[in-house]
Write a structure and sequence with these properties.
The protein is an alpha+beta fold and 160 residues long. The protein contains 3 helices and 9 strands; from the N terminus they run H-E-E-E-E-E-E-E-E-E-H-H. It is 34% helix and 28% strand. A hairpin with a 2-residue loop joins strand 2 and strand 3.
Amino acid sequence: MRMISPLPILASVLIAALAGCATTPPTTAMLTYKSMPDGAEIFEDGKSVGQVPVTRTYSGDGKSNSFRTPDVKAVWPSGAETDFYTYLTIGADRVATLERPAGAPGLQGDLDHAKMVVAARQSEEDRLKTLQKKDIARASDRCKQQQAGNTAAGVSDDCN
């Protein structure tokens, strides 16, 4: 009976494991736009990309490790605006806070708008937390038994 050497099998397993760990280097960078005061709308190439916070993913040119972002414009409800660009390195995940020009008219209106934006964001966050709690409750063993009819009706109302 001929013995088979474990070396070729071991080498094949090692090569397969190392090949599975190979990763491709990143070719993009992320930039999240915020504004001070909150609530500015961000425009890129003349098109709205949303109200802050806005996260954009930019692709590099493949030739260098850093690149210039496109020009963006932050516009507040009063009409105040500021332009912005930066340089990013491949793989970066940065935050840029665009500040309203100090001398622009309508500051109080923009501050009032910022309060409403923050309140709406908080309300949405609270709503999502409530939904998450309901989903967790519905997934509990107790609720599953109640829904299957294995417990007395009316024991708990958080399962529906």
